[in-house]
């Protein structure tokens, strides 16, 4: 892009009012000026934000002390670059920009020189604009700024990417992170004696002797194709490189996925912009005039077409909104040519010390503006002045072309494709060295070298070993890892104190074969429990890595609570040992299993299983029915053989891949599941025939300023007759004091049984929309959360213990110690419970008041309860 060049010859002014008395001084001044003007120097450079290091477009750069009429000032271009030519007699230039403190820079008398000027953002800068410029009450009516933003909204569909039928472009992404705001005392600690090469001076710090520690960088180069109808965006990744830690300690892919979710790409043309797991209303959203105040603060005539600087602030400073400036073209298209955005200090956002967004658009040959560069900088910290994590993500777009229709094969398949040989690291490195569109700063280049050097230091590897134990729960021991540690000790009414030790193999032993095992002992029942599994991965990857493709054989002999299916944690987790009420109904289960699973790149997963299961009642659980003489008949053992198939489709799913499970990162796309299980009588001692069908769907609904809601719907039908209740649907109850998202928190274990049912689960997070508007309360930054759970179903007469014809052919209902019935099916209404709670307590805790709405006449049925859940959110 061409630089703006404004150089003019300065004119001297002679004061002639006191010609005689000041003749000597005037002649001296003229001679000095003439000598100075005969010699000039050229200063070029870039104006950047001090924290994010992102260039500032259209900032003013002027020579300090030069006469105003001389024209020795200029504006930075869209890349923050400037060029000045002025006499050598001036030694200082000054950068100024709305929302930033003026910044001076001294220059030498060298004929050609370059300067980087770092500007500090002002605090509450836009609120000051409102006070000075607006003398009367703000109103949208007859407001030229609002009229202009409505024009931008009206034209945004034709100005955005989705307004084109076909588009293609080159895309370069760079994301870097590091520890920030480190003190000199911290850096000089004895523990860091061998790591001094990692620390760098923090040029953006407002005080001296501050340091940063760059720790992560990832670059990606892609070719992207867009088609409007049918809508498809296809990204071919041509190269991807990052500074990686030893995968024995860190899941690099999962870490990168998590960082990419925090630092998402910003599209200002979207109504809602996702940042740090929250949604912010765009200043050009359809409803923006309702939530924002707009002001015309400048007209820029040095650019073609002319631009209007449109400043905006939230009407309520605590809402999830931006403040900043838009630069709108005055060519009739009302396109966004640039944007600078941040958030108010009062916003209900955790751990974010600073957030800056800069967008720059560039005009093509047909006068359309397309996004050239997007930069997002975020500084995370537990405290305002303490150590933090500062990161930035820059996305650069080049070779933008529209109207070129590609063959359908270009758009087919998954949205993202690896289009290079990931094993050829030399070629990948050469690609970035020769075709990287934005040069890396020296400190960014150092990260690659420093991470490699760091991992060779023994003390650092020891530290990572300890960190992996804390974060993943496993202790490295050569080719195996021991854990998880949170299951080493637990207790329950049947086993009493339970000790467990286990472990699993790692890729250091084999990339294709994985083994996992544990042994546990209960001191009350004096029984050993065992588990062993062997897994073969067909794709030469970890069995937990996407896309999974494996076959697994397993053997398990252990206890189980009927109806409990904990997907992400083990039942013998120490924290789940604390339970309320009567909770001593357990099962001793012996299971032989064979499982096959395959995931596809489009996030469709299929699976099949074969299980031989033997179970016996434990604790106060009983298996009994009436015989022909009306006498109770006890069963000490049940046997079943099952075949199963399952499907799961989660389009565009994102997750953080941990050591033992995945943590989903939900987006706007639904997740669908289907499961079928058949019990086969006569096969491998199977005693019952039945067919179980289960379908489910999950969807997160984003409600802009009103938060979001997670909705899960599920249905289940079991075909067959005279089926014992252990093989029917035992609805998932929770008798712990933790709030469980997928369980009924005031339902007792084994309270409800059915062979057909439908359920709904709604979790609504309002994100403080109401509480942020209450004085004093809003300072606590609490967030409202509401939930409703309901399930309705029943038992067909052939499976109902209360049916006069079949009651003697199925197991009787469970009873408590007082012989009062404690298990039921549904009556004329669904089971329902609701809760209202506060989240973000101490930034990590959610506490709910849960109310059970019906079936309060059941034995030991709690009417209400207080439940807590650790919820870490931004």
Notes on the structure:
The chain has about 850 residues and is mostly beta strands. Strand 37 and strand 38 (about 710-720) form a beta hairpin. The radius of gyration is 33 Å and the shape is elongated. The two termini are about 40 Å apart. This is Carboxypeptidase-like protein.
User: What gyration radius follows from the Cα positions, in whole Å?
Assistant: 33 Å
What's the tally of helices? 10
Q: In angstroms, what separates the terminal alpha carbons?
A: 38 Å
Q: Can you give the helix content as a percent range? A: 10-25%
**Can you tell me the residue ranges where pLDDT is under 50 for at least 5 consecutive residues?**
1-38, 124-134, 566-571
Which keywords apply here?
mainly beta, 12-stranded mixed sheet, 10 helices, 12% helix, elongated, disordered N terminus
List the helices and strands and how they pair.
Blueprint: H1 23-37, E1 40-49, E2 60-63, E3 73-75, E4 81-87, E5 92-96, E6 103-106, E7 112-119, H2 125-133, H3 144-159, E8 166-183, H4 184-187, E9 200-201, E10 210-227, E11 232-242, H5 252-262, E12 272-275, E13 278-281, H6 288-291, E14 292-300, E15 307-314, E16 322-329, E17 336-343, E18 352-363, E19 369-381, E20 388-402, H7 408-411, E21 416-418, H8 425-435, H9 442-454, H10 458-472, E22 475-477, E23 480-482, E24 489-492, E25 496-505, E26 513-522, E27 527-537, E28 549-560, E29 585-599, E30 604-619, E31 624-626, E32 632-634, E33 638-649, E34 654-657, E35 662-665, E36 671-679, E37 690-702, E38 708-719, E39 729-730, E40 753-754, E41 756-765, E42 783-794, E43 831-841, E44 845-852, E45 864-870
Signal peptide: 1-38
InterPro entries: CarboxyPept-like_regulatory, DUF5686
Pfam families: CarbopepD_reg_2 (PF13715), DUF5686 (PF18939)
């Amino acid at each position: 892009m061409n630089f703006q060049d404004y150089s003019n010859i300065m004119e001297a002014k002679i004061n002639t009012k006191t010609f005689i008395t000041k003749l000597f001084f005037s002649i001296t001044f003229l001679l000095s000026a003439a000598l100075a003007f005969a010699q000039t120097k050229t200063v070029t450079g870039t104006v950047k934000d001090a924290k994010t290091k992102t260039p500032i477009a259209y900032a003013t750069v002027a020579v300090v002390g030069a006469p105003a009429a001389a024209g020795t000032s200029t504006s930075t271009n869209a890349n923050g670059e400037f060029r000045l030519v002025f006499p050598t007699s001036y030694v200082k230039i000054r950068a100024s920009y709305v929302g930033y403190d003026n910044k001076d820079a001294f220059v030498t008398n060298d004929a050609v020189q370059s300067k980087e000027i770092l500007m500090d953002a002002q605090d509450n800068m836009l609120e000051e604009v409102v006070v000075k410029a607006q003398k009367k009450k703000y109103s949208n009516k007859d407001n030229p700024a609002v009229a202009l933003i409505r024009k931008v909204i009206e034209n945004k569909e034709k100005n955005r990417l989705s307004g084109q039928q076909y588009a293609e472009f080159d895309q370069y992404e760079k994301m870097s992170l590091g520890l920030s705001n480190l003190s000199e005392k911290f850096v000089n600690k004895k523990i860091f004696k061998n790591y001094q090469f990692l620390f760098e001076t923090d040029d953006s710090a407002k005080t001296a002797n501050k340091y940063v520690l760059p720790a992560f960088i990832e670059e990606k180069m892609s070719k992207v194709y867009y088609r409007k109808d049918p809508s498809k965006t296809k990204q071919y990744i041509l190269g991807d490189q990052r500074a990686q830690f030893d995968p024995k300690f860190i899941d690099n892919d999962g870490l990168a996925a998590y960082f990419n979710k925090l630092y998402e790409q910003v599209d200002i043309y979207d109504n809602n912009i996702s940042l740090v797991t929250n949604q912010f209303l765009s200043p050009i959203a359809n409803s923006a005039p309702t939530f924002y105040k707009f002001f015309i603060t400048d007209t820029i005539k040095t650019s073609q077409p002319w631009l209007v600087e449109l400043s905006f602030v939230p009407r309520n400073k605590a809402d999830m909104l931006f403040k900043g400036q838009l630069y709108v073209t005055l060519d009739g298209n009302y396109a966004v040519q640039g944007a600078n955005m941040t958030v108010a200090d009062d916003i209900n956002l955790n751990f974010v010390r600073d957030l800056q967004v800069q967008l720059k658009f560039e005009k093509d040959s047909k006068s359309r503006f397309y996004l050239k560069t997007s930069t997002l900088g975020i500084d995370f910290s537990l405290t305002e002045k303490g150590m933090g994590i500062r990161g930035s993500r820059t996305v650069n777009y080049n070779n933008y072309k529209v109207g070129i229709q590609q063959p359908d094969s270009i758009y087919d398949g998954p949205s993202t494709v690896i289009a290079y040989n990931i094993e050829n690291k030399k070629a990948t490195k050469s690609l970035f060295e020769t075709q990287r569109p934005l040069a890396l700063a020296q400190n960014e280049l150092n990260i690659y070298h420093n991470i490699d050097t760091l991992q060779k230091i023994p003390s650092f590897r020891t530290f990572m070993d300890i960190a992996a134990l804390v974060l993943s729960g496993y202790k490295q021991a050569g080719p195996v890892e021991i854990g998880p540690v949170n299951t080493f000790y637990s207790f329950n009414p049947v086993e009493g104190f339970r000790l467990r030790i286990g472990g699993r193999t790692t890729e250091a032993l084999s990339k294709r074969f994985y083994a996992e095992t544990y042994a546990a002992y209960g001191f009350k029942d004096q029984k050993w429990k065992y588990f062993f599994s062997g897994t073969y991965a067909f794709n030469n990857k970890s069995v937990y890595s996407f896309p999974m493709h494996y076959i697994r054989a397993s053997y398990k002999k252990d206890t189980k609570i009927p109806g409990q299916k904990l997907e992400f944690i083990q039942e013998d987790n120490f924290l789940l040992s604390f339970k309320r009420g009567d909770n001593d109904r357990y099962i001793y289960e012996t299971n032989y299993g064979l499982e096959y699973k395959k995931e596809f790149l489009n996030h469709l997963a299929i699976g099949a299983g074969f299980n031989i299961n033997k179970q016996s009642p434990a604790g106060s659980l009983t298996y009994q029915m009436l015989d022909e003489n009306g006498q109770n008949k006890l069963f000490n053992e049940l046997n079943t053989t099952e075949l199963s198939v399952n499907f799961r489709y989660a389009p565009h799913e994102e997750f953080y891949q941990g050591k033992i499970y995945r943590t989903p990162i939900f987006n706007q796309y639904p997740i669908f599941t289907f499961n079928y299980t058949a019990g086969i009588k006569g096969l491998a001692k199977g005693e019952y025939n039945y067919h179980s069908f289960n379908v489910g769907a999950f969807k997160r609904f984003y409600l802009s300023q009103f938060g979001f809601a997670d909705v899960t719907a599920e249905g289940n039908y079991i075909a067959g007759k005279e089926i014992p209740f252990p093989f029917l649907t035992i609805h998932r109850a929770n008798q712990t004091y933790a709030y469980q998202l997928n369980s009924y928190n005031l339902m007792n274990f084994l309270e409800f049984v059915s062979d057909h049912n439908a359920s709904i689960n709604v979790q609504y997070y309002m994100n403080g929309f109401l509480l942020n508007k209450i004085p004093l309360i809003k300072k606590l930054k609490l967030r409202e959360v509401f939930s409703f759970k309901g399930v309705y179903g029943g038992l067909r007469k052939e499976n109902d213990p209360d049916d006069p014809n079949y009651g003697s052919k199925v197991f009787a209902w469970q009873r408590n110690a007082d012989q009062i019935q404690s298990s039921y099916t549904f009556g004329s209404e669904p089971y329902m419970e609701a809760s209202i709670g506060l989240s973000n307590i101490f930034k990590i805790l959610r506490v709910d008041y849960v109310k059970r709405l019906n079936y309060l006449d059941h034995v030991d049925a709690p009417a209400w309860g207080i439940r807590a859940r650790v919820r870490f959110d931004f």
